[in-house]
User: Fold this.
Amino acid sequence: MLTANALSKAQGSRQLFRDVSMQLSEGRRVALVGSNGVGKTTLIEILLGIQDPDSGSVQRPPNTSIGYLPQALEDELVGTALEATLGGASHIIALEGRLAELREEMGRNERPGQDHLLREYGDLQSRFEHLGGYTIEAEAQRVLAGLGFDSDLMSRDVAELSGGWQMRVALARLLLARPSILILDEPTNHLDVDSVVWLEGQLSEWPGCILFVSHDRDFIDCVANRVIELDGYSSNEYVGSFSDFVVAREVRLAQLEALAANQKRKFADTERFIERFRYKASKAKQVQSRIKALNRVDRIEVPDSKELKAKFEFPEPRRSSRVVVEFDQAIAAYEDRQVLRDVSFVIERGRKAALVGPNGAGKTTLLRLLLGELDAGSGTARLGNKVDYARFTQNLTEMLDPHKTVLQEFAASIGDPGDRNLRTVLGGFGFRNAQVDQKIGDLSGGERTRLALAITMANPVNLLILDEPTNHLDLPSCDHLENALNAYPGTLILVTHDRYLIRSVADSLIVVRNGTATWHDGLDEDLLKPPQLAPGVGKSAAASGSPHRRERDARKDEARHRSKLSEATRELRKARDEVELAWEKAENELADIQRQLADSATYDDPKRVATLTQQHDRLKDQAAQLMEEYDAVVRRIGRKEAELD
Assistant:
């Protein structure tokens, strides 16, 4: 158990928090929430020992393992994505290395100490199996697959991957390590909807303790069983899910406001008494007594949530044409690799569409196609007449000059301000009074996001494209962004993994999967889940004719399509089945040898041990090779089917 007692921390003249206490023990999954700038990341770094508190203490048991995922990677990951992930199980890899050394030693001529080697090998082999050593590589592949990696990405060098994919590798490494306490600072920022849903399932069943910061309300609600809120003064802990926290917090604030009002009335009565009798000698003793009493009382402070909230107000844009975006049989490709095909849909003026799909499926390619940054291989992709657009992406926060103040960067980025007061505009995005004179290098991640959003939204546009706008934002700012987007008079394309925001704002979905992008009116919850969790997704509801005829025609079309695919992939499927049988046979033989090696009686015969270990290594390599062959054939089948779709 990690225990924090009465922690306080100030940043310059500003008090971040004081008197914060918490316990992190097995089974607790704690969400840490609060406005940007109240010190959530600072508190985490104090718990980890990266920073020291101004007062208070942290007790970390010596045998407790702690895993930490920061908002930005600090340590360089080495090797392929799979190798870097396996580094999270370094204790198991070290055991495997020692077992290999012992096998090599036992394979030599007999000499004194052989019995000792056999005993050590037996003990280590039993421990290795108990820790899941024989399946650790398969487990690493499972975790990476859950986070969106295919076999090609798993074999790529981490240094070649983008920052978002590197963060996924770091997260996979932590999940494989399974520390006693897992601390995650905005773990969903670089994930797509599919991966967020998968991660929810993993963390909701986590056996140890989790402390995490997130702005994703669905994610918090699914994972957390406790919520700790930093409110700019201290901390308050609530037992239950995020939904329970919202209700309990409102009750607590109402009680706090009532107590504060009652205290204020009593203070006013006392101050009137002091003022009335301050100069009356017969009352001097009572006056002094009440002055001392006032000084001793701690005043009840009610958090003013308005201080740090942003308003995200939009200037009125000009009116665009009815058709704002049009795709007609558009194809997008990079060199000889086709990314999207047969993209056909229209976005009309005033629609608010959420663009969803797994990372790597082509969401960014679709936007580049739309904005003319990429030419369509065939078909058309265009903006309508009189369409003015602004686009927010996360790399805007990285382009901010850390040496400039908020006001200087804002003024330099938006150009001619006209008759607008820039301080007033920034106030609408949560930067008030002296905050506009802060250096950008001193801002939190959420404050930088708010500034980048201010730069994006400052000028009037009738098409707004927001790519993960809630990353690093606090929950109050997410609420205000939601309200602003609902009031926004233009057309919106929203790329986000935040399902709560999608449900609150969007009126339609653009789903990018399987090499194409499809338009869906309304919000079908199944479309926000991975395909394996949403059977039946993707069937068209717009077929013409009667329901019976549509159903009959659909069955015929499906049967013809299956027949065509079956004929074209017959030989490949035959090869796949043969490899699968060989792979299954090798796995079964390997499992049998593992059972023999797990039996202590096996080690009474050194020659048998040597033979079994040789067979084990041979079968392990054979199974791995067959798995690669199987994956290769499956990919060839997938490519063939994609060509025929």
The mean pLDDT is 81. DSSP finds 21 helices and 18 strands in the chain. Residues 186 and 214 are 5 Å apart (CA to CA). The longest strand covers residues 323-334.
